[in-house]
Amino acid sequence: MSFTVVSALDSDCVVPYQTNPTPSFTSTESPRIMSGFVPGPLLTVKPSRGLVDEKFEVVVRNLSPGEEVTLYSLHQSEDKDYWEAFGHYVSDAGGTITVAADASVGGSYLGIESMGLLWSMKPVPGSRKGLRLRKMDACSPMLVHISVHRGHISQGFAEAVPLATALAERWYLAPGVRRVEVQEKGVKGTLFLPPGPGPFPGILDMWGGGGGLLEYRSALLASHGFVSMALDYLPWDKKPSKARDIILSYFESAFNIVREHPLVATDRVALFGLSLGASVSIALATTSRVNPTCCVCINGGHVFSPVKHLESLQINQKVFFDENNHQIWRNINLPIPDDPGQKMQLGNIKCPVMLIVGLDDQNWPSKECAEDMEMIMEKAGNVDLLTVLSYPEAGHLIEPPYTPHFRSSNFILQYNREKVVLCWGGRPKLHADAQEDSWRKILQFLRLHLCQKHAPALASKL
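^ Acyl-coenzyme A thioesterase 4-like, sequence as received from the core. Prediction below:
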């Protein structure tokens, strides 16, 4: 495996994995077949290095027919917390287990789940409460250790001696993608640039009200051929007197930084947001000062300005609690107001918009907002621009595929820095299905409206 360091203006980033068709593995016994020698179990992972949204194939060979084993995955996060998943399997008549074709009969996931060893990960027993697995350094891989153990076991993996092990590297950054830090025009963010001369379609990528600079989704978008800027927009240094106008001008400046980049096709720039970032995207799409080519909005709304939402979080009479005393915020903005003056002017939208809706979202009234948006745009005559993807039992945090599900996690309130535990909603299996399906359709949507429909020359670059 070789690495190349590429200078990217004021930031250096290591170009990651090189495709290696031969997976790394170790076994407690040699896999060679010699006279009178029975080879030990062999565990393979292909590809052993790949993007996080790429499936891998896990196969165990050289078992006895009908042998019961446990496949186990382990990852140590950047915060030094351990995450695990496991499945119980029975080998076929040839002594082989193929995870993509054979069912797990027990463990953290059930049935035929080729990526269950990733999406069903949870903190190991005894871990800190309220954890959420997020990649903070997009230039380094997520390392997943996979092992196979004799018998169907559900605990004690740290002490168990594996029959064989393998290491999988999961990257957000494809080879040649560059990372560039941005601090200009009062805007702070990180640009990710695909390899090549361009021009490429551009994306302004925004996360939610938790604040901070999160880069991993932008890195993955750049790995699929888009110039993408992850934007840092919370917390504010000070509260401006005309908060909504000044805040929207900040996002407009960020959008223009992407649009004016020399590698970007100026008329092919999208908005991509989750939660508060989705509401910001809708607000920008309804103004005349910014004209995005298309928008992807995950679990956001249209019934308030971004700043009004942040202020409303201080009003807790509509905050409910689940059975674990975790806060539920979806009722803060319910019922949807009848007064059009309390909503964004959706009739002004002139670009295609994709709404991703988790029907078990416990943080935001995403379902009600999507229904109201569709009704408003129907009356305004622009509903043909709206695509709604609704997912039963999916929660608020719909992320790139195979990201573990979190029904609740710690959250820092921006206005007073208090730490609470928020309930996001969702059920692991159906939430995982939603993440995989929505990501595939998001990429199709972006390619359609940024590339194929209007610019065949750009589509050929992706």
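The chain has two domains: 17-31+40-171, 178-459.
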